[in-house]
Amino acid sequence: DVSTFEVVSDGYFKDKNAVYYGEGIVIKNADPSTFKYLGGGYLKDKNSVWTSAYSEEGESGGPLFLIKNADADTFQFIKYSYARDKNFAYYYSEVIPGAIPLSFVVVGQVYSKDSNSAFYLKDKINNADAASFEVVDNMYSKDKNSVYYRGIKLEGVEPSTLAIFTCGYAKDASKVFWVMNDGTMTTMDVSDPSTFTMFENGCYAKDKNFVYYFNYEGSKINGADTKTFEVIDGWYTKDSSYVYYMGVKIDSADLNSFKVMNIEYA
């Protein structure tokens, strides 16, 4: 119906008779007068809640999939891909088991919590303290007792002194480490964690004694001077005496005239 035709969101349309997507495909049983796009790939009318075929990108468009048992009257999109109604909390339209919807809040792109528990995606984080739970960055979180990576507890990591760096580095008061996606933690051979810090450009770090190049082992750059070491670009570095490539000294390089041309040539 031309006179009542309108765009609901990118990919969805309606008139007084029906709701459509694509080139006019009718969404069965959708009520056009109450149909609306909520965000995060969620749509609803007075009776039902759906998720878009493209909800993983946070967009609308394409066929809809009914979220069974969702309460349309109280259903609301929160942010990212999280939503809730009076009965459940949801992540990408899937119920988060055990989550309390009334106290449910989103604290990061992949982390959420309620008054009793914390969650990574839709999985409960075992023994997390909800009151003190907070997100450190996209993958790391912590509470007053523990540090977590992708929801997995990191044994022996002190939360109050946790610091996250680029290129996979992290540290607490006693060690520097990096973590695989499965939660496996590797401690690096660093002489003084308390002074460990990253350079702004490239995967290089130093403490008061040594300079390190991150190659999933944290290799020391032998002979590098911590006081004058600097990054030329992500691959080449120098100190007051030498030029280095990925942590390896270039013996024949003349420090004063050295210039990077591109990633392969200098």
Q: List the strand order in the largest sheet.
A: 1-2-3-4
* Count of runs of 4 or more consecutive helical residues: 0
Average pLDDT over all residues: 92
Structural class given helices, strands, pairing? Answer: mainly beta
Give a quick account of the main beta sheet: strands, pairing sense, barrel closure: 4 strands, antiparallel
Helix amount, in percent? under 10%
Write down the overall geometry.
elongated
Q: From the alpha-carbon coordinates, what is the Rg to the nearest angstrom?
A: 26 Å
In terms of per-residue confidence, which ranges show pLDDT below 50 for 5 or more consecutive residues? none
- How many beta strands in the DSSP annotation? 32
Tell me the distance between the termini.
67 Å
What portion of the residues fall into strands of 2 or more residues? 25-35%
Which key terms come to mind for this protein?
mainly beta, 266 residues, elongated, single chain, 32 strands, 4-stranded antiparallel beta sheet
